[in-house]
Amino acid sequence: MKLIAEAARVGDGPTPTASVLPRIVDADSPMGRTGGVLNRIEVDGIPVGTVAFSGPGAGGPATSSAVLGDLVAIAREPGSTWAGLPPALAAVTR
Prior knowledge:
The chain has 3 helices and 4 strands. It has 94 residues and is of the alpha+beta class. A hairpin with a 3-residue loop joins strand 3 and strand 4.
């Protein structure tokens, strides 16, 4: 069982549908063999078929790096951001 995020377009409409749900996957499939702190992204497209990317996700050094980055941002000042991006609240209220 894996937590799978999925987004797709239905028909010719411009708005995609999206969900994140637990799913049963075949243990012998590439998605089923992805474990530990690895994440896997699969993109199905026409005419290329399935293209997949795997890499580290949450856990171990990846999580500690993200937490440290969040603490540094908080220490800089409330609402501070990285790379000149507006604070999250400002982006939502636009």
